[in-house]
Amino acid sequence: MADTTQNMMGDSTEAERYLDTFRRSEYVEPEKALIAAILEDAIHQYHKNRHARDAAGKEQFREAEEWIMRKGNGWIFTFVNVCEFLGLDPEYLRRGLREMEGSGSELEKRERRSASKRAA
C-alpha cells in the first residue's frame, strides 16, 4: 500500500500521514481493512493498466477509472463512500490521480466529447 500511496501523492511526508491513519491502533477492524483493500486495489489497477495495450488491461483500467471518477454515492461501495468511511477526501484523491495522468482521465475525455456532440 505504501508504494501505491507514495506514487499517488508524491510527497513521502503526505504518504506517511495517510498511512498513519491505518497505523494508529494496533488492531484495525476487519471491515476497515477490507474497505481499504478495495480502494488500494482500484488505485493499483488504475496505475498498473493506464497505458495497457491488451484488451484485458484496458478493461481493468476502464473499470477502475469508472469507479474512481464516477460522481454520486447511491451505492454503499462507491468511491465517495469508501473514501469517507476511511476519512479521506475523494476529490483530493481524484485530483492526484488526474494530475499524475496529465490532462484528465479517459472517462472525463469521453464525457466531454459526448457532451460536445450532444450540444452540436
In short:
With 120 residues, the protein is mainly alpha-helical.
Oligomeric state of shown chains: single chain
Give the CA-based shape: globular
The helicity comes to over 70%
Largest sheet: none
Question: Could you explain the architecture of this structure?
Answer:
With 120 residues, the protein is mainly alpha-helical. It contains 7 helices and no strands. Helix 1 (2-9) packs across helix 2 (12-23) and helix 3 crosses helix 5 (79-86).
Task: List its traits.
120 residues, mainly alpha, 7 helices, 0% strand
Spell out the blueprint of helices and strands.
Elements: H1 2-9, H2 12-23, H3 30-49, H4 55-69, H5 79-86, H6 90-101, H7 106-119
